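Protocol step 4 of 6: structure prediction from sequence.
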Amino acid sequence: MDCLEFRRQLGSAPQQLDAAAQAHLAACTAGCAEATAEAQAFEDRLTHALAVPVPAGLVDRVHRAQRSAVAVADPAPRRRTAWIAFAAAASLALAFGVAQWRRNAVPLQDLVVAHVTAPGERAAWSLRDPLPDTRVAAAFSERGVTLAASPPRGIAYVAKCGVGRWPSVHMVMPEQGQPVSVVYVPGRVGATAEAFERDQLSGRAVALGNGTLFLLARTDVRFDALEHAWRDAIEGPAQVAAGSH
């Protein structure tokens, strides 16, 4: 197990690390112990916050209140029960709708930044060994995208991830010691080109093919070259040449 796999398991089940994760934690010198301590401290705070004591006799008081309510004469008990059920259902529907609205209202670039900087993805920024083109192409293919040409060289990490409700392909390119996180979101076409800054990261969103490409790094010095390379890979060099006339 490497650091990336360990951090993913730590993020999903910090209290249930399997034998492989425990062995990695015992041998790792790359910061996994510190990450584990932070995760466990958060779990402890969460457990403490949720540990609300139940007052003594609460169950008996609730039962007595229910029996008293039933004993009170009601000319239309079934109708009242129906209205209570309807109101409860309406409240749940409203709460669900508000939650969906809030999730959809978050800008996609914010969701992308939150994903690539999440604890389970941070280790990917330090990877250096390039992956074969076939592995990158396969990740795109499983997202319904056929690359028009070979992907840019130097991709050290690729994974099929979810960004909010959007399926995506997440990659990391070391770029001479200045790693760039690349996220392609098929089926979601945004602005032609948009620069942004989030959490001390420079970002660029580019409409490519039938989706949006996001580039994120400490500096945008390599963004122009990477945008051109990814346009060739996704749309094809012929289309770029045709568009220049």
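Step 5 (inspection) to follow. The chain has nine helices and six strands.
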